[in-house]
Amino acid sequence: MGQLILLRHGQSVWNQENKFTGWIDIALSANGIEEAISAGEKLASVAIDQVFCSSLKRALDTAKIALKAAHQEHCPIVQDAALNERNYGDLQGLNKAEMAQKYGPEQIQIWRRSYDIRPPGGESLKDTCERVLPYYHQAIEPLLKARKTVLVVAHGNSLRALIKELDHISDSEIASVEIPTGVPLFYGDKR
User: Fold this and answer.
1) What's the pLDDT tens digit per position in 54-93?
2) Are 188 and 39 in contact (CB under 8 A)?
3) Distance from first CA to last CA of the chain, Å, rounded?
């Protein structure tokens, strides 16, 4: 197998403002740009063959900034909505702390972290897995089997879906998995 590198996009403006972002196309914050540069510096010694990212600009911008910092800006990038963040439905654009006051912190935690409970009008992590994993098996895994190094730049929940599969994490244990912004996670052979 080749090497798979997972990278959650740098902090977005709405991450900074503590808002549910989901499928809303929000830009990186100044800190998020710095995180993407730092991620790229960590990837400078790795020859990346292919990049996959979501269709949202915070992931694409992170990929482009990281590749430039890694001196690999000519690496091909494929965007696909299958790697988009989980859709938070009616919560998108709302402040997480205000919603915790309205619905209670326990309910917000259930909506954010449970495996199969959807927020109002949105997707559960299970739903996210059902779109991310087929794409991974069809588009990304064949490159890994061909011993390629693949960088996936996506979101907290789309990457949690992949990590759940790769690390064989149970439905209940996945609730406690946190993925930091702008920090590359390495899987597979290191060349």
Assistant:
1) 999 999 999 999 999 999 999 999 999 999 999 999 999 9
2) no
3) 11
As given in the structure block, the two tokens for residue 56 are: 């949202």
Q: Is 41 a catalytic residue?
A: no
Query: Domains in the chain, ordered, with CATH?
Result: 3-188 (3.40.50.1240)
Q: Considering the candidates 35, 85, 123, 155, report the single residue annotated as catalytic.
A: 85
From 9, 35, 123, 155, the catalytic residue: 9
What b/e readout covers 75-108, taking b as 16+ CB neighbours within 10 angstroms? Answer: bebebbebbbbbbbbebbeeebeebeeeeeeeeb
106 an active-site residue?
A: no
In whole angstroms, give the CA distance from residue 23 to residue 55.
9
Q: Is the pTM of this model over 0.90?
A: yes
pLDDT digits (tens, 9 = 90+) for 131-168: 999 999 999 999 999 999 999 999 999 999 999 999 99
